[in-house]
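Lab notebook, bench 4. Still working through the backlog of constructs that have no structural model yet. Next entry is a single chain of 144 residues. Request: give me the structure tokens for it.
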Amino acid sequence: MKLGYIASNYLTINKKVQKGTELFTYSLIHSLVLVADTNNIDITVFASGDSDLPVHIESIDDLPSNSYKNINKYNKHIFFELALIAKALSLQDKFDLYHMNIGDGDLILPFAQFVKKPILITSHGSIDEDFTRKYFDLFARLPN
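Model written out:
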């Protein structure tokens, strides 16, 4: 199985990372690598280009978006996350499954209708149940 794991471009993902979602990614990818060879799983992570993970990394930039002053100043990180998602999904012929691991997964949903592959979403942080139900229901008809 070929897994496209969509992480974040916000921070460098390495053993020093201290933000929850990126720390989760670092731990999960290292755990998956332990079983990947015996279970025939090929993993590609979409993250900042300077991330340190034991798998192939695809990125939109060599540095994380938080390293640029103007992006921080105007809080424009979301656009870099969207660009990372777009890159990952543009390569859908290379993957059997996507694992979305940015925020609470809501960013990928508008793109899901253009993707033929299954999408697994990991939600992080507190979830507003009313928003989540209403927003995710918009995409409930999608088979993936």
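Notes after review: The helical segments are 20-36, 69-73, 77-90, 109-112, 129-137. The chain has a mean pLDDT of 91. Flag for follow-up if needed.
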